[in-house]
Amino acid sequence: MTTLGTGVLRIRDWLRDHPLALDGALALAVYVAMVVGSFADPGAHHGPTFGTRVPAAGSVVLMALGALALVWRRRRPMAVLAATGVLAVVELVTADPPAPVVMSTVIALYTVAARTDRPTTWRVGLLTMAVLTAAAMFFGAAPWYSQENLGIFAWTGMAGAAGDAVRSRRAFVDAIRERAERAERTREEEARRRVAEERLRIARDLHDVVAHHIALVNVQAGVAAHVMDRRPDQAKEALAHVREASRSALNELRATVGLLRQSGDPTAPTEPAPGLAVLDELVETVRRAGLPVEVACAAKDGPPLPAAVDLAAYRVIQEALTNVRKHAGTGAKAEISVVRVGNTVEIMVLDNGRGTAGGGSDPAGGGHGLLGMRERVTALGGTLTAGPRYGGGFRVHAILPLKARAQEPDQPDAAGRTGEHA
Predict the structure, then answer these.
(1) What is the pLDDT of residue 194?
(2) Per the confidence metrics, is the pTM higher than 0.70?
(3) What are the φ/ψ torsions at residue 387 (nearest 5 degrees)?
(4) Residue 380: exposed, middle, or buried by beta-carbon count in 10 A (0-12, 13-18, 19+)?
(5) Angle at the Cα of 74 (from 72 to 75), degrees rounded to 5?
(6) Distance linking the first and last C-alpha atoms of the chain
Protein backbone atom coordinates (compact mmCIF):
# COMPACT_ATOMS: atom_id res chain seq x y z
CA MET A 1 0.00 0.00 0.00
CA THR A 2 2.87 2.36 0.76
CA THR A 3 4.44 1.73 -2.65
CA LEU A 4 1.09 2.28 -4.40
CA GLY A 5 0.48 5.49 -2.51
CA THR A 6 3.96 6.76 -3.32
CA GLY A 7 3.41 6.00 -7.00
CA VAL A 8 0.10 7.87 -7.03
CA LEU A 9 1.71 10.89 -5.37
CA ARG A 10 4.53 10.90 -7.90
CA ILE A 11 2.10 10.73 -10.81
CA ARG A 12 0.03 13.55 -9.32
CA ASP A 13 3.10 15.73 -8.81
CA TRP A 14 4.31 15.02 -12.34
CA LEU A 15 0.93 15.92 -13.84
CA ARG A 16 0.86 19.08 -11.74
CA ASP A 17 4.27 20.06 -13.13
CA HIS A 18 3.21 19.19 -16.71
CA PRO A 19 -0.36 20.50 -17.15
CA LEU A 20 -0.12 20.35 -20.95
CA ALA A 21 0.30 16.58 -20.80
CA LEU A 22 -2.78 16.27 -18.57
CA ASP A 23 -4.83 18.42 -20.94
CA GLY A 24 -3.62 16.35 -23.87
CA ALA A 25 -4.78 13.16 -22.18
CA LEU A 26 -8.13 14.80 -21.39
CA ALA A 27 -8.51 15.92 -25.00
CA LEU A 28 -7.87 12.38 -26.22
CA ALA A 29 -10.42 10.96 -23.77
CA VAL A 30 -13.04 13.52 -24.84
CA TYR A 31 -12.40 12.75 -28.50
CA VAL A 32 -12.87 9.00 -27.94
CA ALA A 33 -16.08 9.67 -25.98
CA MET A 34 -17.45 11.93 -28.75
CA VAL A 35 -16.63 9.40 -31.45
CA VAL A 36 -18.25 6.56 -29.51
CA GLY A 37 -21.31 8.71 -28.81
CA SER A 38 -21.68 9.63 -32.47
CA PHE A 39 -22.59 5.99 -33.26
CA ALA A 40 -25.75 6.28 -31.13
CA ASP A 41 -29.02 7.21 -32.85
CA PRO A 42 -31.22 9.23 -30.47
CA GLY A 43 -34.22 9.26 -32.80
CA ALA A 44 -35.05 5.54 -32.89
CA HIS A 45 -38.65 4.43 -32.28
CA HIS A 46 -37.92 2.62 -29.03
CA GLY A 47 -35.35 5.02 -27.60
CA PRO A 48 -31.69 5.64 -28.45
CA THR A 49 -29.93 2.76 -30.17
CA PHE A 50 -26.22 2.18 -30.61
CA GLY A 51 -24.51 1.11 -33.83
CA THR A 52 -27.36 2.02 -36.19
CA ARG A 53 -25.56 5.01 -37.76
CA VAL A 54 -22.06 6.10 -38.69
CA PRO A 55 -20.83 9.68 -38.21
CA ALA A 56 -20.10 11.71 -41.32
CA ALA A 57 -16.57 12.70 -42.24
CA GLY A 58 -17.30 16.34 -41.47
CA SER A 59 -18.53 15.43 -37.99
CA VAL A 60 -15.37 13.45 -37.32
CA VAL A 61 -13.27 16.46 -38.34
CA LEU A 62 -15.30 18.80 -36.10
CA MET A 63 -14.94 16.40 -33.17
CA ALA A 64 -11.18 16.21 -33.71
CA LEU A 65 -10.86 20.00 -33.86
CA GLY A 66 -12.97 20.43 -30.73
CA ALA A 67 -10.90 17.90 -28.80
CA LEU A 68 -7.63 19.41 -30.07
CA ALA A 69 -8.65 22.86 -28.86
CA LEU A 70 -8.96 21.51 -25.30
CA VAL A 71 -5.19 21.06 -25.12
CA TRP A 72 -4.88 24.84 -24.62
CA ARG A 73 -7.88 25.24 -22.31
CA ARG A 74 -5.75 26.40 -19.33
CA ARG A 75 -3.70 28.93 -21.30
CA ARG A 76 -6.54 30.50 -23.33
CA PRO A 77 -9.85 29.45 -21.73
CA MET A 78 -11.99 32.11 -23.42
CA ALA A 79 -10.52 31.45 -26.86
CA VAL A 80 -10.96 27.70 -26.46
CA LEU A 81 -14.59 28.18 -25.35
CA ALA A 82 -15.29 30.38 -28.37
CA ALA A 83 -13.66 27.90 -30.76
CA THR A 84 -15.46 24.85 -29.40
CA GLY A 85 -18.73 26.78 -29.28
CA VAL A 86 -18.45 27.67 -32.97
CA LEU A 87 -17.65 24.04 -33.85
CA ALA A 88 -20.65 22.82 -31.83
CA VAL A 89 -22.99 25.31 -33.52
CA VAL A 90 -21.73 24.26 -36.97
CA GLU A 91 -22.38 20.61 -36.10
CA LEU A 92 -25.87 21.38 -34.74
CA VAL A 93 -26.79 23.34 -37.88
CA THR A 94 -25.34 21.02 -40.54
CA ALA A 95 -25.84 17.50 -39.16
CA ASP A 96 -29.02 15.62 -38.33
CA PRO A 97 -28.76 14.01 -35.89
CA PRO A 98 -25.67 15.92 -34.79
CA ALA A 99 -22.55 14.30 -33.35
CA PRO A 100 -21.79 15.22 -29.71
CA VAL A 101 -19.29 17.98 -30.55
CA VAL A 102 -20.97 20.00 -27.82
CA MET A 103 -19.11 17.83 -25.28
CA SER A 104 -15.92 19.78 -25.96
CA THR A 105 -17.80 23.02 -25.34
CA VAL A 106 -19.02 21.71 -21.98
CA ILE A 107 -15.42 21.01 -20.88
CA ALA A 108 -14.30 24.45 -22.10
CA LEU A 109 -17.13 26.18 -20.22
CA TYR A 110 -16.18 24.33 -17.04
CA THR A 111 -12.59 25.58 -17.43
CA VAL A 112 -13.71 29.18 -17.89
CA ALA A 113 -15.94 28.98 -14.81
CA ALA A 114 -13.14 27.43 -12.73
CA ARG A 115 -10.54 30.04 -13.71
CA THR A 116 -12.51 33.31 -13.78
CA ASP A 117 -14.81 35.18 -11.40
CA ARG A 118 -18.50 34.58 -10.80
CA PRO A 119 -19.90 37.50 -12.84
CA THR A 120 -17.89 36.39 -15.87
CA THR A 121 -19.11 32.82 -15.37
CA TRP A 122 -22.74 33.97 -15.30
CA ARG A 123 -22.43 36.07 -18.45
CA VAL A 124 -20.42 33.57 -20.47
CA GLY A 125 -22.40 30.58 -19.20
CA LEU A 126 -25.81 32.06 -20.01
CA LEU A 127 -24.62 33.13 -23.47
CA THR A 128 -23.22 29.67 -24.20
CA MET A 129 -26.38 27.94 -22.98
CA ALA A 130 -28.62 30.24 -25.02
CA VAL A 131 -26.64 29.94 -28.28
CA LEU A 132 -26.24 26.16 -28.18
CA THR A 133 -29.80 25.46 -27.07
CA ALA A 134 -31.26 27.84 -29.67
CA ALA A 135 -29.16 26.26 -32.44
CA ALA A 136 -30.35 22.79 -31.43
CA MET A 137 -34.02 23.85 -31.20
CA PHE A 138 -34.25 25.87 -34.43
CA PHE A 139 -32.08 23.78 -36.77
CA GLY A 140 -32.65 20.25 -35.51
CA ALA A 141 -35.24 17.90 -37.00
CA ALA A 142 -36.52 16.87 -33.56
CA PRO A 143 -39.16 18.98 -31.77
CA TRP A 144 -37.83 21.94 -29.81
CA TYR A 145 -38.81 20.26 -26.54
CA SER A 146 -36.94 17.00 -27.28
CA GLN A 147 -34.72 15.56 -24.59
CA GLU A 148 -31.61 16.09 -26.72
CA ASN A 149 -32.15 19.87 -26.72
CA LEU A 150 -32.93 19.92 -23.01
CA GLY A 151 -29.81 17.81 -22.42
CA ILE A 152 -27.64 20.46 -24.08
CA PHE A 153 -29.20 23.11 -21.83
CA ALA A 154 -28.68 20.96 -18.71
CA TRP A 155 -25.10 19.92 -19.46
CA THR A 156 -23.91 23.46 -20.16
CA GLY A 157 -25.60 24.72 -17.01
CA MET A 158 -24.02 21.99 -14.88
CA ALA A 159 -20.59 22.69 -16.39
CA GLY A 160 -20.80 26.35 -15.37
CA ALA A 161 -22.06 25.50 -11.88
CA ALA A 162 -19.38 22.84 -11.33
CA GLY A 163 -16.59 25.15 -12.46
CA ASP A 164 -17.83 27.95 -10.19
CA ALA A 165 -17.97 25.54 -7.24
CA VAL A 166 -14.41 24.38 -7.89
CA ARG A 167 -13.19 27.98 -8.13
CA SER A 168 -14.92 28.88 -4.85
CA ARG A 169 -13.42 25.84 -3.15
CA ARG A 170 -9.91 26.73 -4.33
CA ALA A 171 -10.32 30.32 -3.15
CA PHE A 172 -11.53 29.08 0.26
CA VAL A 173 -8.57 26.70 0.66
CA ASP A 174 -6.11 29.39 -0.45
CA ALA A 175 -7.58 31.82 2.07
CA ILE A 176 -7.26 29.28 4.89
CA ARG A 177 -3.66 28.49 3.90
CA GLU A 178 -2.75 32.17 3.73
CA ARG A 179 -4.36 32.81 7.12
CA ALA A 180 -2.46 29.90 8.66
CA GLU A 181 0.85 31.08 7.18
CA ARG A 182 0.21 34.61 8.40
CA ALA A 183 -0.59 33.34 11.89
CA GLU A 184 2.58 31.23 11.91
CA ARG A 185 4.71 34.18 10.85
CA THR A 186 3.07 36.38 13.48
CA ARG A 187 3.65 33.78 16.18
CA GLU A 188 7.32 33.38 15.28
CA GLU A 189 7.83 37.13 15.12
CA GLU A 190 6.17 37.55 18.50
CA ALA A 191 8.40 34.85 20.00
CA ARG A 192 11.52 36.52 18.58
CA ARG A 193 10.38 39.92 19.82
CA ARG A 194 9.84 38.62 23.35
CA VAL A 195 13.20 36.87 23.34
CA ALA A 196 14.90 40.05 22.14
CA GLU A 197 13.14 42.17 24.77
CA GLU A 198 14.09 39.74 27.53
CA ARG A 199 17.70 39.70 26.38
CA LEU A 200 17.79 43.49 26.34
CA ARG A 201 16.34 43.70 29.84
CA ILE A 202 18.78 41.14 31.24
CA ALA A 203 21.67 42.85 29.45
CA ARG A 204 20.69 46.15 31.07
CA ASP A 205 20.48 44.53 34.49
CA LEU A 206 23.86 42.88 34.07
CA HIS A 207 25.37 46.15 32.86
CA ASP A 208 24.04 48.03 35.87
CA VAL A 209 25.22 45.39 38.31
CA VAL A 210 28.68 44.95 36.83
CA ALA A 211 29.34 48.62 36.11
CA HIS A 212 28.30 49.82 39.57
CA HIS A 213 30.14 47.26 41.65
CA ILE A 214 33.24 47.08 39.48
CA ALA A 215 33.51 50.85 39.76
CA LEU A 216 33.32 50.57 43.55
CA VAL A 217 35.91 47.79 43.57
CA ASN A 218 38.22 49.85 41.36
CA VAL A 219 38.00 52.92 43.61
CA GLN A 220 38.49 51.00 46.85
CA ALA A 221 41.36 48.98 45.39
CA GLY A 222 43.06 52.23 44.35
CA VAL A 223 42.61 53.63 47.84
CA ALA A 224 44.08 50.47 49.40
CA ALA A 225 47.09 50.56 47.09
CA HIS A 226 47.66 54.24 47.89
CA VAL A 227 47.62 53.96 51.70
CA MET A 228 48.91 50.41 52.06
CA ASP A 229 52.35 51.45 53.39
CA ARG A 230 51.47 54.53 55.45
CA ARG A 231 48.02 53.66 56.85
CA PRO A 232 47.47 49.90 56.86
CA ASP A 233 44.28 50.21 58.93
CA GLN A 234 42.66 52.36 56.22
CA ALA A 235 43.95 49.92 53.56
CA LYS A 236 42.26 47.05 55.42
CA GLU A 237 39.03 49.02 55.55
CA ALA A 238 39.23 49.67 51.79
CA LEU A 239 39.85 45.97 51.13
CA ALA A 240 36.83 45.14 53.28
CA HIS A 241 34.76 47.43 51.08
CA VAL A 242 36.18 45.67 48.04
CA ARG A 243 35.15 42.30 49.44
CA GLU A 244 31.66 43.56 50.31
CA ALA A 245 31.18 45.09 46.86
CA SER A 246 32.35 41.85 45.23
CA ARG A 247 29.96 39.80 47.35
CA SER A 248 27.07 42.12 46.45
CA ALA A 249 27.95 41.91 42.76
CA LEU A 250 28.01 38.10 42.88
CA ASN A 251 24.67 37.96 44.68
CA GLU A 252 23.01 40.30 42.19
CA LEU A 253 24.52 38.47 39.23
CA ARG A 254 23.27 35.18 40.66
CA ALA A 255 19.79 36.61 41.12
CA THR A 256 19.73 38.05 37.58
CA VAL A 257 20.97 34.89 35.90
CA GLY A 258 18.63 32.85 38.05
CA LEU A 259 15.72 34.38 36.15
CA LEU A 260 16.85 32.35 33.14
CA ARG A 261 16.70 29.03 34.97
CA GLN A 262 13.81 26.61 35.09
CA SER A 263 12.20 25.89 38.42
CA GLY A 264 13.85 22.47 38.65
CA ASP A 265 17.38 23.60 37.74
CA PRO A 266 20.06 23.61 40.45
CA THR A 267 20.72 27.05 41.90
CA ALA A 268 24.50 26.87 41.67
CA PRO A 269 25.84 24.19 39.30
CA THR A 270 29.41 23.22 40.07
CA GLU A 271 30.06 20.56 37.42
CA PRO A 272 31.82 21.53 34.14
CA ALA A 273 29.78 22.36 31.05
CA PRO A 274 28.41 19.15 29.46
CA GLY A 275 29.57 17.90 26.08
CA LEU A 276 29.70 14.82 23.91
CA ALA A 277 31.89 13.15 26.53
CA VAL A 278 28.78 12.70 28.69
CA LEU A 279 26.46 11.89 25.79
CA ASP A 280 26.20 8.26 26.94
CA GLU A 281 24.86 9.39 30.30
CA LEU A 282 22.20 11.54 28.59
CA VAL A 283 21.19 8.66 26.33
CA GLU A 284 21.02 6.25 29.23
CA THR A 285 18.74 8.64 31.11
CA VAL A 286 16.41 8.84 28.13
CA ARG A 287 16.41 5.07 27.74
CA ARG A 288 15.46 4.61 31.38
CA ALA A 289 12.53 6.93 30.69
CA GLY A 290 11.23 4.43 28.11
CA LEU A 291 12.51 5.83 24.80
CA PRO A 292 14.76 3.49 22.75
CA VAL A 293 17.75 5.40 21.38
CA GLU A 294 20.44 4.29 18.93
CA VAL A 295 23.69 6.28 18.88
CA ALA A 296 26.41 6.52 16.24
CA CYS A 297 28.99 9.04 17.45
CA ALA A 298 32.18 9.25 15.43
CA ALA A 299 33.05 12.78 16.55
CA LYS A 300 34.77 11.49 19.70
CA ASP A 301 37.59 10.15 17.55
CA GLY A 302 40.34 12.62 16.86
CA PRO A 303 41.11 15.94 18.54
CA PRO A 304 38.62 17.22 21.10
CA LEU A 305 35.97 19.64 19.91
CA PRO A 306 36.11 23.32 20.89
CA ALA A 307 34.25 23.90 24.14
CA ALA A 308 31.52 26.05 22.56
CA VAL A 309 30.92 23.57 19.73
CA ASP A 310 30.95 20.62 22.14
CA LEU A 311 28.37 22.30 24.37
CA ALA A 312 26.18 23.33 21.43
CA ALA A 313 26.18 19.78 20.02
CA TYR A 314 25.20 18.37 23.41
CA ARG A 315 22.40 20.91 23.86
CA VAL A 316 20.98 20.25 20.40
CA ILE A 317 20.81 16.52 21.06
CA GLN A 318 19.36 17.11 24.53
CA GLU A 319 16.59 19.38 23.25
CA ALA A 320 15.81 17.09 20.31
CA LEU A 321 15.48 14.06 22.60
CA THR A 322 13.28 16.09 24.94
CA ASN A 323 10.96 16.91 22.03
CA VAL A 324 10.84 13.25 21.03
CA ARG A 325 9.86 12.22 24.56
CA LYS A 326 7.17 14.88 24.73
CA HIS A 327 5.62 14.71 21.29
CA ALA A 328 6.56 11.55 19.35
CA GLY A 329 3.96 9.37 21.05
CA THR A 330 4.11 5.79 22.29
CA GLY A 331 6.21 3.21 20.49
CA ALA A 332 8.61 5.78 19.02
CA LYS A 333 12.37 5.42 18.91
CA ALA A 334 15.16 7.88 18.19
CA GLU A 335 18.42 7.71 16.27
CA ILE A 336 21.42 9.97 16.92
CA SER A 337 24.31 10.48 14.53
CA VAL A 338 27.34 12.71 15.22
CA VAL A 339 30.11 12.75 12.61
CA ARG A 340 32.98 15.01 11.55
CA VAL A 341 32.80 16.16 7.94
CA GLY A 342 35.84 18.22 7.03
CA ASN A 343 35.91 21.28 9.25
CA THR A 344 32.38 20.75 10.52
CA VAL A 345 30.46 18.49 12.86
CA GLU A 346 27.07 17.20 11.72
CA ILE A 347 24.42 16.20 14.26
CA MET A 348 21.33 14.29 13.15
CA VAL A 349 18.46 13.28 15.46
CA LEU A 350 15.63 11.26 13.88
CA ASP A 351 12.48 9.73 15.29
CA ASN A 352 9.66 7.68 13.81
CA GLY A 353 6.90 8.99 16.06
CA ARG A 354 3.43 9.88 14.87
CA GLY A 355 2.98 12.82 17.23
CA THR A 356 0.42 13.52 19.90
CA ALA A 357 -2.83 15.37 19.66
CA GLY A 358 -1.09 18.57 20.57
CA GLY A 359 1.33 18.38 17.73
CA GLY A 360 4.12 19.56 19.90
CA SER A 361 6.84 18.48 17.55
CA ASP A 362 5.80 21.16 15.18
CA PRO A 363 8.07 24.20 15.19
CA ALA A 364 5.01 26.40 15.46
CA GLY A 365 3.70 24.56 18.48
CA GLY A 366 4.20 27.55 20.73
CA GLY A 367 7.42 26.64 22.59
CA HIS A 368 10.87 28.11 22.11
CA GLY A 369 12.92 24.89 22.06
CA LEU A 370 13.60 24.84 18.31
CA LEU A 371 14.08 28.59 18.22
CA GLY A 372 16.63 28.32 21.03
CA MET A 373 18.48 25.55 19.21
CA ARG A 374 18.67 27.63 16.03
CA GLU A 375 19.95 30.64 17.92
CA ARG A 376 22.60 28.56 19.69
CA VAL A 377 23.77 27.01 16.40
CA THR A 378 23.72 30.18 14.32
CA ALA A 379 25.62 32.04 17.06
CA LEU A 380 28.53 29.69 16.26
CA GLY A 381 28.16 30.22 12.50
CA GLY A 382 26.34 26.93 11.87
CA THR A 383 22.97 25.99 10.40
CA LEU A 384 20.04 23.98 11.73
CA THR A 385 17.04 22.53 9.95
CA ALA A 386 14.11 20.85 11.65
CA GLY A 387 10.86 19.49 10.28
CA PRO A 388 8.68 16.43 9.69
CA ARG A 389 10.13 13.44 7.87
CA TYR A 390 8.58 11.91 4.79
CA GLY A 391 6.51 8.96 5.97
CA GLY A 392 6.23 10.16 9.58
CA GLY A 393 8.46 11.28 12.38
CA PHE A 394 10.67 14.32 12.86
CA ARG A 395 14.22 15.27 11.88
CA VAL A 396 16.70 17.69 13.45
CA HIS A 397 19.91 18.34 11.49
CA ALA A 398 22.62 20.71 12.71
CA ILE A 399 25.97 21.59 11.11
CA LEU A 400 28.53 23.22 13.41
CA PRO A 401 31.91 24.58 12.24
CA LEU A 402 34.87 23.41 14.29
CA LYS A 403 36.16 26.98 14.28
CA ALA A 404 33.14 28.68 15.75
CA ARG A 405 32.54 32.24 14.68
CA ALA A 406 30.12 34.72 16.11
CA GLN A 407 27.34 36.01 13.91
CA GLU A 408 28.04 39.44 12.45
CA PRO A 409 25.89 42.20 13.92
CA ASP A 410 24.71 43.50 10.59
CA GLN A 411 23.62 40.12 9.32
CA PRO A 412 19.94 39.21 9.52
CA ASP A 413 18.92 36.74 12.12
CA ALA A 414 19.88 33.38 10.71
CA ALA A 415 17.40 31.68 12.98
CA GLY A 416 14.70 32.92 10.72
CA ARG A 417 16.40 31.46 7.66
CA THR A 418 17.23 27.95 8.85
CA GLY A 419 14.95 25.10 9.60
CA GLU A 420 12.04 26.64 7.70
CA HIS A 421 9.67 24.08 5.90
CA ALA A 422 6.81 24.46 3.72
Answers:
(1) 84
(2) no
(3) 180, 175
(4) buried
(5) 65
(6) 26
Q: Which residues contact 44 (CB under 8 A, 6 or more apart)?
A: 52
User: What DSSP state is assigned to residue 228?
Assistant: T
Helix (H) or strand (E) segment spanning residue 351? strand 344-351
Question: How far is residue 152's CA from residue 3's CA, in Å, rounded to a whole number?
Answer: 43
Q: If you average pLDDT over residues 138-158, what whole number do you get?
A: 81
Which pairs from 361-364 meet CB under 8 Å and 24+ separation?
A: 361/323, 361/324, 361/326, 361/327, 361/328, 361/388, 361/394, 362/388, 363/387, 363/419, 363/421, 364/184, 364/187, 364/188
* Packed helices 118-139 and 147-227: angle between N→C axes, nearest 10 degrees: 170
Report residue 348's pLDDT band, with 50, 70 and 90 as the boundaries: very high
Determine the Cα angle at 103 with ends 99 and 107, to 5°.
Answer: 165
- Do the bridges between strand 40-41 and strand 49-50 make them parallel or antiparallel, or are there none, so unpaired? antiparallel
CA-CA-CA-CA dihedral for 253, 255, 257, 260, to nearest 10: -170
Q: Are 279 and 318 in contact (CB under 8 A)?
A: no
Can you tell me the distance from the alpha carbon of 170 to that of 163, in angstroms, rounded to the nearest whole number?
A: 11
